[in-house]
Amino acid sequence: MNLREYQYVLKVAQLQNMTRAAEALYITQPSLSHYIARVEEELGVQLFNRLTTPLSLTPAGEKYVETAQMILELASGLKKELSEIAKGKKGVITLGMSHARASFFLPYFLPVFRRKHLFKICIIFQRNVFCTHCSGGPGHDGAGGESGGTNRSSVYL
């Protein structure tokens, strides 16, 4: 399966009409009908009840649409995140500084940086590492226990 299949089925489900869906997708109605039939054949279930006007979803079609929407949202989110990484808007930054400098600079630096970027920041104070997730929250620390004599723990700011 590919994302186009999900988009085609979702458009037919949304418009409840094969011809209008084909027009909205900029393809011919026979091509769309054939595409949907091929998806149904591959899945071994009928997604649309073609005996009703307007078209309606079968129970299998309802489940397919629900899952397809989630898949397309995940794909869109992934594409956005990868784009942010490629543009340098997201990633990991490691800062090393003394306690004195950290206590002076970080209260000013981190809040401003957090508003603009989605970076995970690892701050190394002498031999202690405190990792913060600028966009994070509980449940994903990314630090992971002892490593090379350096103490690691997570702090969410």
Automatic annotation (TrEMBL):
It holds the Pfam family HTH_1. Residues 1-58 form the HTH lysR-type domain. The keyword Transcription regulation applies. GO terms for molecular function: DNA-binding transcription factor activity; transcription cis-regulatory region binding. Keywords: DNA-binding, Transcription, Transcription regulation. InterPro entries: LysR_HTH_N, WH-like_DNA-bd_sf, WH_DNA-bd_sf. PANTHER family: HTH-TYPE TRANSCRIPTIONAL REGULATOR, HTH-TYPE TRANSCRIPTIONAL REGULATOR GLTR. Belongs to the LysR transcriptional regulatory family. This is LysR family transcriptional regulator. It comes from Candidatus Enterocloster excrementigallinarum.
